[in-house]
Amino acid sequence: MTALADLKAYLRETEALTCVAERLGWDQETMMPRGAAEQRAEELAAMESVLHARRTDPRLEDWLARAEATTEAEARLLDLAGRNYNRATRIPARLATELARLTSLAQGVWAEARAAEAPAAFLPTLAQMVALKREEAACLSEGDLYDALLDDYEPGATHRVLGAMFDRMRPRLVSLREKVLGAAHQPPALDHVFPEATQLRIARICASAFGYDWTLGRLDLVVHPFCSGSGRDVRITTRVCESDPFNCLYSTIHEVGHACYEQGIAAEHALTPLGRGVSMGVHESQSRIYENQLGRSAPFTGWLYQRMVDAFGDFGVADAQAFHAVVNRVNPGFIRTEADELHYNLHVMLRFDLERQLITGKLEVADLEAAWNVRFLADFGVAVEKPSQGFLQDVHWAGGLFGYFPTYTLGNVYAGCLNRAMRAAVPGIDAALAEGSAKPATDWLRENLQRHGGLRPPRETIVTACGFEPTEEPLLDYLESKYAAIYRL
User: Fold this and answer.
1) What radius of gyration do the chain's Cα atoms show?
2) What is the DSSP track for 211-264?
3) What positions constitute the catalytic site (predicted)?
């Protein structure tokens, strides 16, 4: 066998074992008995020990030096394999194992602390996590500690570039928010009970409408929705609040966006470094365009309104036009995952600033809750009333995902660009959405972005799909046009 063939065979086994570890994590969040938490932490730590040894095997360096690419895909595979090897060899095996063990334990500690509104029960664990992530960043860093962690989720991005983009976005977002909240016309909030079983039935209908392949996945309930898997096993989750069906429905559509990206990657890339979404920013572009530009559009909400009436009867919304306004109602609420499109990016910017301060040592864990509450009041004009509304609401820091949050807004920016390009290229998107089908849109996304997986770097992936360099302008233009119509500005 050639060096390239040896390398491909080895990477295939490593990717397969990675999938096994991911399935353990999925099970932990969905089905694992509560009493198994400590054992599961040891299982995941053992898996990470095996995976770290494989990812740092000296044979990889030899194969990478001798392998010769003859196609674009092979060249990109070698590039990604080399990058992954370089990062893995900088992390001591002890640290990789400790992080896997603590991540498994911390998510259970976080869930219980959140449910009990007991931040003191979570802070010691979070302090351990921050210490380990600072250590990991120091191992990886060639300059800025936070950038070293950000690179795991958005290769090539820096906090300075993202921070500058956020600074450009904030004035237009805040200005539009003030106009909307000051408008004479204000859509009402829902005031009805929506039973869980019926919500889940409609959620499954919505998932099918967006092309989720049920033969390759499943839907389960969790505390914090997520998508897990790649290739031919991609699972989604959601949560239910019986007073707010949009929590369930749009969390489901969001996770379907992630899942359809993974399900749509070309089969020849399976179980290779090319067989996954190329970055979290690109991944979030799929979940956010499914959820917002498509799922919250007037044609789709018009179709969804009839499904809701059929399922729940009269729930206090007069017609499809009023329902579209209710779905897109702007409210400075506490919870990021329930936030409207105007406030969502402000939620992300808050987390981006705080987690960067945690990693660089400018903010200590003991001061995090107070810092969060002060910043939230300044940005949103309302005071946090309990920890589950504040710094305990997201699972990300318990999972060690420092550097993930800014990719949500980057994904929104990418989604704005993709939406502009897609609608210019594909007639009939709205007509299909009005019939409950996202197929023309999702077919375009699959052909122009999803099927390529990791074939190109993140920004190049977006440029190739859109035909232009991504900027925040299409997103902001879309938001201003949409909310001007809804709020009669």
Assistant:
1) 22
2) T--GGG--EEE-SS--EEEETTEEEEEE--BTTBHHHHHHHHHHHHHHHHHHHH
3) 255 (proton donor/acceptor)
Do 115 and 168 lie in one domain? The reply is no
Nearest by Cα to 101 from 149, 42, 160 = 42
Q: What is the DSSP letter of 452?
A: G
Q: Per the annotation, where are the binding residues?
A: 254, 258, 284
Q: Which two tokens stand for residue 368?
A: 């995090």
Same domain, residue pair 120 and 225 = no
Same domain, 428 and 308: yes
Do residues 213 and 284 share a domain?
yes
Residue 152 in domain: no
Closest Cα to residue 106, out of 150, 45, 184?
Answer: 45
Asked whether 345 and 387 are in contact (CB, 8 A), the reply is no
252-262 pLDDT, tens digit per residue, is: 999 999 999 99
Q: Both tokens of residue 234?
A: 């991609």
Give the pLDDT of residue 402. Answer: 98
Q: 263: Cβ–Cβ under 8 A, 6 or more apart, which residues?
A: 212, 213, 216, 217, 231, 234
> Do 381 and 469 have their domain in common?
yes
Residues classed as catalytic: 255
Query: Residue ranges for the binding site for Zn(2+)?
Result: 254, 258, 284
- Full-model pTM: 0.96
Q: 44, 100 in Cβ contact below 8 A?
A: yes
Is 145 domain-assigned?
no
Q: Provide the residue type at 200 as one letter.
A: L
Domain that holds residue 93: 3-140
Same domain, 373 and 475: yes
Low-confidence ranges of the chain (pLDDT < 70): 1
* Residue 29, CA distances (Å) to 37, 46, 79, 327, 445 in order: 10, 19, 33, 28, 30
Q: How far apart are CA 151 and CA 157, in angstroms?
A: 6
State whether 260 and 399 are in the same domain: yes
Is 97 part of a structural domain of the chain?
yes
Last residue of a domain, one of 78, 112, 140: 140
